[in-house]
Structure prediction request, 196 residues.
Amino acid sequence: MKLKFIIEKSYSGLNKQRYKALFPYLEKTLKLYQKSWDEINKKFFKTVEKITSYPWKHKIYFCVLSPFHKGISSWGGNKIVRTWRENPYSMRKITAHELLISHIFTIFERDFQNEKLTNKQKWALAEISGWAITGLEKEMLKFWPWISEEEKYPLNHNYPELYELQRRLKPIYETKKNFKEFLKKGIKIIKRTGKR
Prediction:
C-alpha cells in the first residue's frame, strides 16, 4: 500500500491568479509531506491491517493538498484531502485518521451491510474508531510520539455531537478482544442511542 500526495486544481476552490501564486508552495509542501509520510508508509499500512484484521481495499491512496480543508475522507474511496499549512511531521496523525475513516467504511461495506446503518452512524463510528486507533494503540503512537496526552483521544474537536458516544466507546475499545468485536458493540450502542 502507498499514500501519494498530489495537487488537483479542482480541489483548490481558488481563482486562477490566486492558484498560480499558491502553486509553488503547494509543490514544496507536497515534497515535504511525501518525504515525511514515506518514513512511516509501509509500517503504517501493515499496522492498521494488524489492528483491524482487515486488508486495505486499495493498493494506492491519494492525498490532495488543499488551501482550505483541514481533512476530508472519501468514505471508502482511495482519495483524501488535507491542508497544506501544517508541519510535515505534525500532519501525519490527521492524515492517518482520514485514511482510517476510508478504511473503516470499506469494513462496513464488507461485513456490516445487514446492520442498516445510516451514513451519519457509519461516519460517527468511523471517526471515533480513527481516534482510538491513532491515539490508543501503542504501535501507532510510534508514528507521532510528540503528541500530547490530550491529542491521543481528543475530546475537543469540531464534532461536539460525538463527545458522549466517544466517551462511552473508549473503555470498550481498550478492553476489546479484536476490532470487529469493538465495531459490533459500537453499532449496538449507536443504534440504542437513536443517533441517525
Notes: The chain has a mean pLDDT of 94. The two ends are 33 Å apart (CA to CA).
